[in-house]
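User: structure tokens for Hypp4567 protein, please.
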Amino acid sequence: MAAMLQQEALTNLLMWIYLPKSLQSAVHGVVTGEDYVSAIRTTIRAGGCNSSRSSIIGACFGAQVGVEGIPADWRAKTLRYEQVLELARRVVSNRSSF
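Assistant: Done. Predicted tokens:
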């Protein structure tokens, strides 16, 4: 059901067009998603520009659930995971300087 709703929203937002429409579609995925994994899988199955939507959805859910909310096997498959995590920690610790 969620995949169908996502598909309808993406169709209405012209999902086949580059990033600007992907943002609105990703917000829909965040708002309607049940959890980190299902929200990302739903947007991947919906097709279109799913890589940019998945990145945005993952960032939003990740900010909500923290590193522990991201499946360990997904973290293990992330290229340069430790470097990415360190960069994210630096961004968070320096956010007041932006």
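User: Anything notable?

Assistant: The mean pLDDT is 83.
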